[in-house]
Amino acid sequence: MYQSSLFAPTMREVPSDAEAASHRLMLRAGFIRPVASGVYTFLPLGWRVLRKISAIVREELDRAGAQEMLMSALQPAELWRTSGRYGAYSPELIRFKDRGDRDFVLGPTHEEVVTALIADEVNSYRQLPMTLYQIQTKFRDERRPRFGLLRGREFLMMDAYSFGENQESLDAAYRAMYEAYERIFSRCGLEVRGVEADSGTIGGEGGSHEFMALADVGEDTIAFCAHCGYSANLEKAEIGKRDGEPRTDLANEGAGNSAELVHTPGARTIEQLTRAMGVTADETIKTLFLVADGQATAVAIRGDHEANEIKIKRVLGAETLEMADADTIAALAAAPAGFIGPVGLDLPLWVDFAVADMATGITGANKGEFHLRGVVPGRDFSLARVGDLRNAEAGDPCPRCAEGHLDMRKGIEIGHVFKLGTKYSLPFHADFADAKGASSQIIMGCYGIGISRMMSAVAEQHHDEGGFRWPTAIAPFQAHIVPVSWKDATQSALAEELYRTLQACGVETLLDDRDERLGVKLKDADLFGIPLRIVVGKRAGEGVVEYSERSRSEAEAVSAAEAVERCRQRTAMTFR
Questions:
Q1: Which of 200, 194, 197 is nearest to 233 (CA)?
Q2: Which residue in 131, 144, 242, 278 is deepest, having the highest Cβ count within 10 Å?
Q3: DSSP letter string over 527-566?
């Protein structure tokens, strides 16, 4: 393509709310433009990248035996009521009524639609196993869209669904998709880590894995062990075995040494308490009042740790969990927030392992402006309910090996695979007759890749101060020809010849035919990030050009034929 015809409006000044490097560069380079908060138009360069990522996804899913289809983004709310997710799904679900006053949603995912389809069309084991997928725009009413394509309200996604007779067929489909994901991310040039994850609102009891693109801008934290390879999302990350067993019967420990009441005016936070008493946060215990599915409960966490909502929901078997408000706290405790403690509470109490291991601790006294010093877990409050209720931290022991410890990295979730089991096939009566004629529920898995989010994740990992450094497989163009002076007949003639030759070799090429200064052209070339570059300059008459790659700084003087051959070889390497 001739660059003079390319619709790529570049920007000098980027909006101040563009925090992520990928967001700033996509705006600057004319890859995207905002329509509304979290909603974007993909301009030609951005769309070319998105199409190439989609093509790789299609190739690898087809290779894994999946079949592409396309479902409606408009979904009757009744399907979501059948699955039980209409009320349980977060406010991100975009709901509306049609002119007939019927409830609809814009699909953030398609478990309901595809399961209803399979329930109608599949009735025999002979039709199984099967995996279906689509690439489609999805909608989620994010409360705080941010980082451009990394967290938007409208985005392009691949979602796939497997259907089988039994657990073995699910395991096989899951493994095939997992391996397809690894090939997809590798081909797109992404450094990705597969981690154990919580299944969230998708659900299912068979477990799930997220695929995290490592990036400092990522909103997710990955806990991993360099020794054994264990890795998990922070929500899911377990904490390794502690020394000894939980303390459960300490009724006589410290007999005669009861906890001391200490006046702590204004010490409502852990920071204020440690300052007032001259202690460190790991000597304190904070007590959280939570409401789980409408029932109040208390959770005791060490002062320097953070409670993990997912883990707490799991041990409570709760669908919903929220912090108790001031009125609820006032009705349940004799003290305001900040002075509540586990001693003498008349409601269910869950205690984190780290608190159970404390010899003594400082807690709220359940009396305004007072705390208790010398509280002994197991003596002063019950350890009948003890569990892993906190976020893992760097340095915690690995849950899979005795030698390792956990480290932390930031990541961007770009893919997720789930073992759903019968979560959706049961309510939708998606069953089949097995080889003996008996009726059984179809066993399902589901799999998603955020394609537009992948585009941003690649940009986060492949850029510098000047612009993008796209991997060749997904770059908008593979080669960029830049004549120093388009008005120079010799230079323009050689540039045209190179352009025609590369195009004939199947190398997607952009020819900068603009009447601009070389500095402007090279700055735009850096910004676009096309991986292979040929500069045609004063040695054009000798058939000599400068060849360089965007991922490297140095340029080499080579013959025009050599430049073509290098481009041909480099682009051929991107195909699998």
A1: 197
A2: 131
A3: HHT-SEEEEE-TTGGGTEEEEEETTSS-EEEEEHHHHHHH
Q: What is the pLDDT of residues 337-367, one digit of tens each?
A: 899 999 999 899 999 999 999 999 999 999 9
Token digits for 134? 């689509």
Domains of the chain in sequence order: 18-238+408-460 (3.30.930.10), 260-387 (3.90.960.10), 477-572 (3.40.50.800)
CA–CA distance, 366 with 333 (Å, rounded to integer): 7
Query: pLDDT tens for residues 217-260?
Result: 999 999 999 999 999 999 889 998 765 545 444 444 544 578 99
* DSSP structure string for 355-402: HHT-SSEEEE-SSTTEEEEEE-BTTTB--SSEE--B---TTPBPSS-S
Q: Which of 17, 187, 36, 46 is nearest to 527 (CA)?
A: 46
Write down the pTM of the prediction. 0.88
Q: What distances in angstroms separate CA 42 from CA 27, 130, 524, one per listed residue?
A: 10, 33, 18
CB 217: neighbour CB atoms within 10 A?
A: 18
Q: How far is CA 239 from the centre of its chain?
A: 22
Are the CB atoms for 170 and 419 separated by under 8 Å? yes
Q: b/e string for 73-108 if b means 16 or more Cβ within 10 A? A: eebbbebbebbebbeebeeebeeeeeeeeeebbbbb
